[in-house]
Amino acid sequence: MIIKQPSRFIKQSQLIPQLCILRPRFYSTDLENLKKESDSTEFDSSASTTGIIDKKQSEVLLYFDSIYAFATSKNLVLNYISRLELPFRRKVNESKLKSKVEALSSPTPADSKITDFIPLRRDCGAFVKFQYPKEYTAREFIEQIRKNVIANEEQKMDKNPLLKLTNYVFDVDPKVFSVKGVPWIEDLRRFPSPKISVKFEGSALTEEELYVLFRRYGLINDIKIESPTEAVIWFRSLRSAIAAKHCITGIELNNGKTVLHIQFIRIKRTNYLTDFVMNHTRIAVPIILALLATFAVLIFDPIREWFIQFKINHGNTKRFEHYKQNRWFKLIYVPYRTIVDWISNSYDYIDTQFHDMTGFKDSDSEDGGSSIMEMKNENNMFWQERNEKSKQLKLWILENLNSYIIIKGPQGSGKEEFVLDHTLKLDDKLNKRILVVECDELSKARSENNLINNTASQLGYFPVFTWTNTISQFVDLGLQGLTGSKNAALSESKETQIKNMFSLTTQAIRHITDSEYAKYVKIIEKKNKRIKNDDEKIEILKQDDFLQQHPESKPIIIINKFARKADIHSNDFIYPLIADWSSGLIQNNIAHVLVLTSDVGSIQHLNNALPNQVFKDISLSDASMKSSKQYVCDALKISDTIQNQSLDDCIQPLGGRMLDLQSFIRRIKSGEEPNQAINEMITQAAELITTFFLNNTKSNDVNWQPSQVWLIMKLLSNKEDVTFAELIKNPLFKNSKETIDTLSTLEKFDLISLKRDKGVLNKICPGRPLFKAAFKNLLHDTRIWNLYEIDYLTNLINIEITKINLFESELIKIHQVGNKLDGRIDYLIKKIEASNGKIVNFEKEINEIATGNSKHKTFLGIPY
C-alpha cells in the first residue's frame, strides 16, 4: 500500500503498518542479478569481498553497535588514526569481538548459532548473522536477543558503579538493531557523520514517513526534503546515524515502489576564528600579530638574556675555571683528570729516560718559556709610563663612586690594551664580568640586517632572526592592502630593534647583580644560623648598599671606539643610544662603564645623557722616545745600551705611537733594514694622504677642499702644532663654523688631532706622529708640490676675485643711490686694490711654478 497523501492527522500506529510492508527478499533485484553474474566463476563471495551479506531463509541479520573500545570520532584526523595499527593500542581481533557478542546475546535459544560475523572497525560495530530455530519466528528471535543484550548490560553496570556513571554520561552501552535493508559494507574514505543523505529510488517519502522510519535509532535534530529524490536527516548523535545507515539502506517500501539509499554527509563546520579574521582584518590581524610577538618574546627573550649573561660572565679567559667550581662538573672532571694524569705521567717517565740517554732537550718548551718572559719584560718596559694611570683606573673602579670613566687618547695609542690587558686582566676581582662593545662595528654596518647582526654579536644576543624584518615589511604591505590603512607600521624600525636589544642587556646585567646579591644573602643567612646569640648575628645589607661596598659584583662595560658621528649617516643614532643606555646603568648602580674614545667631541653625547655628572677621565698620550726605543730593542732583542744612531733616527718619526712601532717591528723582523722600513712606512702614509685627503673629493663624507689639507700639511711639516688663531688668518679658513666642521671631519679620519682648552679648540696637531714625516715627504716632492701649490694659489685667487666682485657690486649700488659716501668709497677702492695686488702676486707665483723658477716664499708667515 502506498500513502499518496499522508495526513498530519494520521496516527503513528496506523502509519507504521502501511509504510513498512516488507516482502521476504535477500537483495534488491539489481544487486541480486549483479552478484549472481559476477560470482559465477568466483570461489570467494563473502561480504568482505563483495560488500553484500548473503542470508538464507532461516537466518536473521542484526547490527551490534559500540562493541569496540575505541569510539568513532567526528574528527577527521582521529578517524584516520582509528584505522591505523598503532603499537600502543590494545589488539582486538575478530574472535574476541565475536565472543563479546555471544556473551551479550546469551542465553540464546537452542539450535541457534552465529553463522557469520562481519566487524566494522571504522564504525565500531559489527553485522552478526544468526540462524534461529524453526519454532521461533524472526521477530521473536530478534526480540529475545535484544532483551538479552539489555539484561546483560544492566547486570554488568550493577556490579560496577563507575561503568554505570560512564554509560550515563557518554552512552557507550552496546545496542542491537534489526537490519531491514540490504547493507552495503564498504571501506571507502567516507567517514561517519550525524548527517545522512536519503536518496529515493522511485516514489519519495514525506518528512512524517521518514521520521517514523528513522526515529527508532535515536533522536533527530532536523529532517529536510532537499529535492524530489533526496532528503537529509540530521541525528543528534553520530551513533544513531551509523545504526540507521546500516539498518535502513537498501530497504524496499510501498510494495517495492520505493527503495532507500543512505550515505553519510560530511558536515561543514564553521570556524569562527577564521571568519573573524577574514571579516575583520583591521582588528584581527594586528591582534594576531601582537599575540605572536608576545609569544615570541616569552619564549626567546629568556634564552637571549641567558646568552648575554653568559657572554658577560664567561667572556674572559677564565671561563673554564668557572665551571671547575661546579660540584656536578667536579664529579665528572676529577676522575677524567686523574686518568689523564696517569697517562701523562707515564709519558713523562719515558721522555725523561729518553732525554737522559740521548742528552736531548725540548727546545720548544725553553723557547716558549723565554718568549713568555720576554713578553712580560717587554710589556712591563713599554707600559711603565702608564702604571700610575692604571693604578688610578683600578682605584676609581674599586671606590665605586660615579664609576663612569672616560679614557681618551689618539688612535693607535693603545687604549684598549691599557684597559683590558694591563688593568683589568691582571686583577682577579675585576676580570670576572666584562662586556666589550665595539662601536665601530655598529657604525660601519651598511644594511639593517648587518647592523642587527653586529649588535647581537657584540652583546651576545642570541638567537636573532633578521629574516623577520623582510617578512614584517611584506606583512605591512599586505595589511595595507587588506585594511586600506597606510599607517599600519607593524614592523619595527632598526632604532627600536637596537634599543630593545640594549634594554634586554640591561635586564641581563640586572639579573647578574641580583644573583650576586642572592649569593651574599644566602652566605650571611648560613652564618647567622650557626650563631646562637642574636646580638652577634650579621646584619644583611640592602642590595644598593651591597653593590656599593662590593664593586667587583658589578659587571664592567667597556664602550670602545666611541665617536661623535657614525661612518654611515643613517647609523648616527647609535652613539646617543649607547650614551643613554650606559648612563642608565650608572644611574641604576648595576655596572661600571669605561668609555674609550679618540674623538673628544663624542663626550657631548655623554653630557647630554648625564647632564649633572662630572666624568672621571684619563688621557693617554704617545710614549716617550726612551720608552719607544726600549720597546723596539726588547722586541728585536737588541741591547738598548748600544748607541745606534741609525735606529734612533728611524724611531724618531714614529713619535711613540704604539701602532706604528708595532708595524715597524714587524717590518724589521720580516727582513727589512730599519731605514728601508721607516721609508716604506712614510711612503705609505704619504700615499694614504694623497689618495684619501687630496684626491678623494667626490665622496659623500668629504667636506674639505684639497687646498685646505695642503695648507695644514705645510703648517705642520715644520711645527709640532698650529694654533687655531693662526690657522683662521688664512683666507681658506675665514668662516669659523665651517672651519671647525672641516677640522672635526679631518680629525675623525685621523689626519689631524685637535687639542682643546676648557672645551675650546686651541691647537691642531698631526693625527699620527708619522704623518709629520709624510707631510715633509710630500712637500719635498717637486711634482706633487707644483700640482697642489698651483691648486692652493688658484683657490686664493678665486677668494680674492669673489671679494672684488662684492666690493664692486657695493660701489655700483652707492653710485645708483647717488649718495656721496666718500669715506666708504675710498675704503672699498683700497680693498679692491689690495685684493688685486694679491692676485697679481699669486699669478706671478703660479707662472714661476709652471716655468720651474719657483722659490719657496711665505704669505702671512706661512711657507708655500
TrEMBL record:
GO cellular component: mitochondrial inner membrane
Pfam family, one: RNA12
Domain of life of the native organism: Eukaryota
GO biological process, one term: mRNA processing
UniProt-listed CDD domains: RRM_Yme2p_like (cd12433)
Cellular compartments annotated: Mitochondrion inner membrane
Transmembrane domains' residue ranges: 283-300
Keyword Ribosomal protein in annotation: no
InterPro entries: Mt_escape_2_C, Nucleotide-bd_a/b_plait_sf, P-loop_NTPase, RBD_domain_sf, Yme2_C, Yme2_RRM
Keywords assigned: Membrane, Mitochondrion, Mitochondrion inner membrane, mRNA processing, RNA-binding, Transit peptide, Transmembrane, Transmembrane helix
The Mitochondrial escape protein 2 C-terminal domain, residue ranges: 386-816
Protein topology in the membrane: Single-pass membrane protein
Protein family per UniProt: Belongs to the YME2 family.
Entry function: Plays a role in maintaining the mitochondrial genome and in controlling the mtDNA escape. Involved in the regulation of mtDNA nucleotide structure and number. May have a dispensable role in early maturation of pre-rRNA.
The protein, known as: Mitochondrial escape protein 2
Native source species: Candida verbasci
